[in-house]
Design goal:
- GO terms for molecular function: kinase activity; protein-N(PI)-phosphohistidine-sugar phosphotransferase activity.
- It holds the Pfam family PTS_IIB.
- Keywords: Kinase, Phosphoprotein, Phosphotransferase system, Signal, Sugar transport, Transferase, Transport.
- By secondary structure, this protein is an alpha/beta fold.
- 49% of the residues lie in helices and 20% in strands.
- The protein has a four-stranded parallel β-sheet.
- β1, α1 and β2 form a beta-alpha-beta unit.
- The chain starts with a strand and ends with a helix.
Length: 104
């Protein structure tokens, strides 16, 4: 099973996106799970390396460069989520799923 983690400002919208995208993957019979945490936990989470992919939400893009450097140190991809893949509607969920599959 592959795992992806969304790093967000407060974790509310990212938790919803993580759940909806995980549900989408299950419907598609794909073995990918998603979770979410706050940006203050991001550095430690990436260093721990427990996920296959780390996604930085649009509202926390100011941390992207730093998180990507840590990701390089531990050999894990860290990517930015575009705004159109961060909308909890079917189109946004599909875009998020595509981003995860392309990046993982």
């Amino acid at each position: 099973m592959k795992k992806a983690l969304i790093i967000c400002a407060a974790g509310m919208s990212s938790s919803m996106m993580a759940k909806k995208t995980t549900d989408y993957f299950k419907e598609q019979h794909k073995d990918i799970e998603m979770d979410a945490i706050t940006a203050t936990e991001g550095e430690d989470a990436i260093r721990a390396g427990d996920f296959d992919l780390y996604l930085v939400s649009p509202q926390t893009s100011m941390y992207l460069d730093g998180f990507q450097k840590i990701g390089q140190e531990v050999g894990k991809p860290v990517v930015s989520i575009p705004f159109n893949a961060y909308i909890p509607i079917p189109m946004g969920i599909e875009k998020m799923a595509k981003l995860v599959e392309e990046s993982i």
